[in-house]
Amino acid sequence: MTLTTLLLFSLVALVAIATPGPTVLLALANGSRWGVRRALPGMLGAVMSDFVLVGAVALGLGALLAASEFWFSVLKWAGAAYLAWLGLRLLRSGGGFELPGAGTNSAPPPARAVFSKSFLVAVTNPKGYIFCSALLPQFIDPAAAQAPQYLTIALVFAGLDFSVMLGYAFVGARAVRLLRASAAQWLDRVCGGALLALAGSLAFYRRANS
């Protein structure tokens, strides 16, 4: 893999990651509710899922999902149901958050729960596997050892993903500090509605592409 190829992959990956998706929306919501520091476990969960996704593509899971209607449907409906559940929880939340010097309106969940939520959102999304299965091999040199190339791609992808989520978390935390309590509730509802929309698009994804 040449430097030019790696830079081209980075550009394509950055565009794909920066487009608001489930893990990015969770980073935004977590940042607005509990601040950037407490949103970090969720970002790490999404980063861990990046390595799982790239590893699965390297092993051929993306091609299997593209070829198997049954396994695609299993993963699709599991992911759609989980996204819908998260979206409804955000829509029903009171916009609780914690500001420096203020009382806590909503106790933050354990770091493990925040980590697991983002990780599960990412690994149950079959669109990610199929997208990466179509994209990643284009940047792999078949004449060279593939494992180091996939590892490099995974590290770059995870680094970009973390940077983008960190930016969204800062935006969420900043919005709360500027607009106070109304901002937290507004962001919760926007993120919750967006997650429900993503759940709906995931549920009909196969039908729209068949």
Helix content: over 70%
Total of DSSP H or I helical runs spanning 4+ residues: 10
Radius of gyration over C-alpha positions, nearest whole angstrom: 18 Å
Number of domains: 1
N-end to C-end Cα span = 34 Å
What order do the SSEs take from the amino end to the carboxyl end, as H and E?
Answer: HHHHHHHHHH
Structural class: mainly alpha
Q: Unreliable stretches, pLDDT < 50, 5 or more residues?
A: 95-105
Number of strands: 0
Could you tell me the mean pLDDT?
76
Large-scale geometry: globular
**How large is the share of residues in beta strands?**
under 5%
The largest sheet, given as strand count, sense and whether it forms a barrel, is: none
Q: Brief description of this entry?
A:
The protein is mainly α. The chain has 10 helices and no strands. The chain has helices at about 5-20, 20-35, 35-60, 60-65, 70-90, 110-125, 125-135, 145-180, 180-205, 205-210.
Describe this protein's structure.
The protein has 210 residues and is mainly alpha-helical. The protein contains 10 helices and no strands. It has helices spanning 3-18, 22-34, 36-58, 61-67, 69-92, 111-123, 126-135, 146-179, 181-203, 205-208. α1 runs parallel beside α8 and α3 runs antiparallel to α8.
